[in-house]
Amino acid sequence: MDTQHTPGTALLVIQPVSPPIASPALVPALVTAEQTEIMASFNAILERERQRTVLQQSIMPENRTALLAALHNAGIVRLEVNYDGYGDSGQINEQNATLATGETAALEDVKSAGGVTLASVGYDLTIDHMTHHLAAAVEAYCYDVLETYHSGYENNEGGNGAFAFDIEAGTIELIHNDVVTDYETSTHAL
C-alpha cells in the first residue's frame, strides 16, 4: 500500500480482513435438524400463500363481472369505496354511490334485488361461492383485492386508498397509498 504520511500526524491504516474459511463439510453441521424443519415449514407456508394468491387472481374477473352487473341493476353509475388501516387494524370506511338519477347515497341505503354471488378462496385452497347483499359483496371484493395486491396494508404505519367503480365504463380502479416513516441521515467527521 503506497501511502503518504505527514510527520507529526496520526496514521491510520486499514487492512482488508479475509473472511473466515469454513470447510464445506462443516457448514451443514451448523444448521440443526430442527432449523432445517422450521425452514421447510416456512417455505411450505410461503408456497401455499403463493398458490392462494394465484387462485385469488384467477377468480377476480368472475367476481368483478358479477359485482358490476349487480351495481348496474341497482341503478348505480359510480361507486367510491374508501379504506384505511394502521397499527394492525384496517377497515372499509365508506361506500358512496352515485345513482343514475344523479343522487348520491351510502351503498347500504341503496335497494337492490337479490344478492350477489362471489367466489372466494379458502385457506385450504378450495374455491367456494357465497351470496351477499350488495354492500357486503362490495366490501368482500375490496378486502380480497387488498389482500391480494396490498396484503398487510394495515400493518405498522399502514396504508389507505380508494376503489373507484365506474359502472357505465365497466371499470374498477384501486388507488392505494402506503404510509411510511422516512428519515434523513447525516454523517459528520469530528
Question: What's this, in brief?
Answer:
Helix content is 32%, strand content 28%. It has three helices and seven strands, in the order ααβββββαββ.
Q: What does it look like?
A:
Helix 2 (33-73) packs antiparallel against helix 3. The chain has 3 helices and 7 strands. The strands form 2 sheets. A 5-stranded antiparallel sheet has the order 3-2-1-6-7, covered by helices on one side. The mean pLDDT is 86. By secondary structure, the chain is an alpha+beta fold. It has helices spanning 27-30, 33-73, 134-149; strands at residues 76-86, 89-99, 104-106, 116-121, 127-132, 159-166, 171-178.
SSE topology:
Blueprint lengths: L26 H4 L2 H41 L2 E11 L2 E11 L4 E3 L9 E6 L5 E6 L1 H16 L9 E8 L4 E8 L12
Antiparallel strand pairs: 1-2, 1-6, 2-3, 4-5, 6-7
What structural class do you assign from the helix and strand content? alpha+beta
- C-alpha-based Rg, rounded: 27 Å
Helix content: 25-40%
Strands in their spatial order, largest beta sheet: 3-2-1-6-7
CA-to-CA gap between the ends?
Answer: 26 Å
Mean pLDDT over all positions: 86
Beta-strand percentage range = 25-35%
Oligomeric category: single chain
Biggest β-sheet, characterized? 5 strands, antiparallel
Describe the structure using short key phrases:
alpha+beta; 190 residues; single chain; 7 strands
